[in-house]
Amino acid sequence: MARDFFHYAVRNGLEKEGWLVTDDPLRIKAGGADMEIDLGAEKLIAAERGEEKIAVEIKSFIGTSNISEFHTAVGQFINYRVALEERQPERILYLAIPIGVYRKFFILPFAQTIISRFQILLIIYDPVGEVILEWKN
Questions:
Q1: SS3 of the chain: helix, strand, coil, percent, to 5
Q2: Separation of alpha carbons 23 and 97, rounded Å
Q3: For the chain, what is the domain count?
């Protein structure tokens, strides 16, 4: 599997926030299809709340067309969310995107409409500092 260009920046950012990466990649089978989500992670919240589990699909948007990469990312996100609902419903799926792309593309009305309509949860990361800047639920 080819890793996303900023794979380790996101992984390191999650680990800095106390997440334990349990799967790299998170392999899942659903409806006869085999899929690989970039990361699976969990974090012990509080004894009474148990564990919070997430899956993260990492995107760099380093190609020539942001809209083309957006189409791919949204399609993967929807497919992975359906698979997780079937196989690991306790896991929350996030799409990780770099801050520069968020500021230039994800704030556009079209992108915001898609994010809202399909309830896409975002992790905005700094690929240079290898930190998570914001969680958008």
A1: 35, 35, 30
A2: 19
A3: 1
Amino acid type, 77:
F
Domain-embedded: residue 84:
yes
| Residue 49 burial (C-beta neighbours within 10 Å; 0-12, 13-18, 19+) | exposed
- Is residue 59 assigned to a domain? no
Whether 88 is covered by a domain: the verdict is yes
pLDDT recorded at residue 63 = 87
Measured CA to CA, the distance from residue 63 to residue 29 in angstroms comes to 29
Containing structural domain, residue 36: 17-45+71-94+115-122
**CB distance 16 to 135 below 8 Å:** no
**Residue 68, token pair as written in the block:** 């083309």
The CA distances from residue 20 to 43, 52, 124, in Å, are 6, 11, 18
Is pTM beyond 0.85? Reply is yes
pLDDT mean over 5-28:
93
Task: State whether residue 86 is helix, strand or coil.
Answer: helix
**What tens digit of pLDDT does each residue of 49-97 get?**
568 899 999 999 988 899 999 999 999 999 999 999 999 999 999 999 9
Select from 60, 52, 54 the least CA-distant residue to 80.
54
